[in-house]
Amino acid sequence: MEDEKKQNDVIVHPFPPVYDCKSKVLVLGSFPSVKSREDNFYYAHPRNRFWQILNIIYQMTATTVEEKKALLSFVHIALYDSIYSCSITGSADSAISRITPASITPILQKTEIDTILCNGTKSFSVYMEYCYPETNVKAIKMPSTSPANAAFSLSSLIAAWKPFLPSAGA
């Protein structure tokens, strides 16, 4: 009964998007993992390669939340998720149901964003179904940085992501 209740609970996205008026690229995940919800910030699972990719591409060593926010601001990347609330057990995208999409338009109106990168298939499918009709900004489906995406090595992820990310400080 307890598991059934947990599965039926709707969880609201626990932290705000990260962006500023100079953001040029929006990276959308699907919904925060258990670890990210615990740490109250994006891509907190130690095996998620998102921060490792950015640190390598931009030759930085951002490890704390404040350092990561500073890195995002410096390179003009915004972060959010395509799902505002959902039912989810654990962290797997396959366990997501009862989706309420995130509102992306206000972010686009307050920034210079002209590129939206969806981190994985679930983020992309939710964005295209629910958000694209409102924003009319096409998104690019990127290979997931999740540890569940073992098919992509770190070097393959860097090669896939780098062409779509802004130049440092540009």
Automatic annotation (TrEMBL):
Residue intervals of the Uracil-DNA glycosylase-like domain: 16-153
Domain of life according to the entry: Bacteria
Entry coiled-coil feature ranges: none
Matching InterPro entries: Hypoxan-DNA_Glyclase, Uracil-DNA_glycosylase-like, Uracil-DNA_glycosylase-like_sf
Protein keywords: Glycosidase, Hydrolase
Record-linked Pfam families: UDG (PF03167)
EC number of this enzyme: 3.2.2.15
MF terms (GO), sorted A to Z: DNA-deoxyinosine glycosylase activity
Name by which UniProt lists this protein: DNA-deoxyinosine glycosylase
Organism expressing this protein natively: Candidatus Ornithospirochaeta stercoripullorum
Species lineage: Bacteria, Pseudomonadati, Spirochaetota, Spirochaetia, Spirochaetales
